[in-house]
Design goal:
Layout lengths: L2 H10 L3 H14 L10 H5 L5 H4 L18 H6 L6 H4 L2 H12 L2
Length: 103
């Protein structure tokens, strides 16, 4: 089990209040708004923390560049994927990758 999987397991054991507080803390570390792929639509919709929440709902469609590898959350949670704003959360990308590799 890698760092991300360990974090997910421990997160799932927390109360909803504790989970909410962790997400609030993580939002303060989020660098999504500084990324070249982030746009005014995403800003106006207050989108962010795509590594946890998943891809942009209706704003970001173009991969310009990716700052995910330099984000403090990447190290903190052991993230291995990128372009979360378009490709989905770390968990979603891992799941899709594992399903596709089984075919």
């Amino acid at each position: 089990m890698d760092k991300f999987e360990q974090k997910v397991m421990s997160f799932s054991k927390l109360s909803s209040n504790e989970q909410t507080q962790i997400l609030k803390d993580d939002i303060s570390l989020c660098i999504c708004p500084d990324c070249p792929s982030y746009n005014d639509c995403a800003k106006d919709a207050t989108e962010g923390l795509f590594c946890a929440h998943g891809s942009s709902f209706h704003c970001i469609f173009l991969e310009k560049d990716c700052f995910c590898p330099s984000c403090p959350i990447t190290e903190q949670y052991g993230l291995t994927r990128n372009f979360f704003c378009i490709r989905g959360s770390e968990a979603a990308q891992r799941w899709v990758g594992s399903v596709l590799s089984q075919k």
